[in-house]
Design brief:
Length: 216
């Protein structure tokens, strides 16, 4: 199989979702690590006009949007499918990915994790407590809903590991390292789910860079 090339900023939870999926599906890949800000250059915009992370190249095929990339990797890789065949489980997986992309990351993960981890560790900034406080109601809603949807199941979309786990895992792992995240996750089924996620070889092979790894 042609080597896949992934472009992204190390530490990005979306990039990690892509790399972990490639690991799960035994798709050979090479990471082109971008420095912060490089995703706004003209060269990067030629691949991703919206300047988000990540982008993949597979031969002459260029693809952006993490959801699309994960589904592509599942289709071309080997091993068990990462998308449920049961219609309700598949719909649940898609619902959870949508919650992550529309509500959790932009309104919770991005603000809280940046203020508590990314900014202080990588940029030397101080947390903006007002930004964090503003994010907490949505954080409570998202964590409660992820926990409700997990229920007594092993994985988010049921008993089979899926793209929902790969998408949400890197996001909640970061949140769990903040005081707010620890408080929200305490006593939920998500705490044990995170341990199961972290133990998978695909997540062990795609740990964040050392400074952020110490936080995780």
């Amino acid at each position: 199989m042609t080597e896949l090339v992934a472009h992204g900023i190390p530490g990005s939870p979306f990039l990690r979702a892509v790399l972990a999926t490639a690991e799960e599906k035994a798709v050979p890949y090479r990471l082109v690590a971008l420095a912060p800000g490089m995703h706004r250059t003209d060269a990067y915009r030629r691949m991703h006009p919206f300047s988000r992370i990540p982008v993949i190249e597979h031969g002459d095929f260029v693809l952006y949007e993490t959801q699309a990339i994960l589904r592509y990797l599942d289709a071309i890789g080997s091993g068990p499918t990462l998308q449920p065949t049961d219609p309700r489980a598949a719909a649940r997986m898609n619902q959870i990915i949508g919650v992550n992309d529309w509500y959790f990351f932009p309104k919770v993960g991005g603000p809280v994790v940046f203020q508590r981890l990314i900014g202080p560790i990588l940029l030397g900034t101080s947390p903006d407590e007002a930004v964090i406080a503003e994010a907490l109601p949505m954080a409570q809603t998202c964590v409660s809903e992820f926990d409700r949807l997990l229920g007594a199941s092993t994985w988010l979309a049921g008993e089979t590991f899926s793209l929902a786990d790969l998408m949400v895992g890197p996001q909640l792992e970061y949140l769990s390292q903040t005081p707010e995240g620890r408080a929200l996750l305490a006593g939920t089924g998500l705490a044990e789910w995170l341990k199961r996620i972290a133990a998978r070889p695909s997540f062990q092979a795609t740990l964040p860079p050392e400074p952020l790894r110490q936080a995780v």
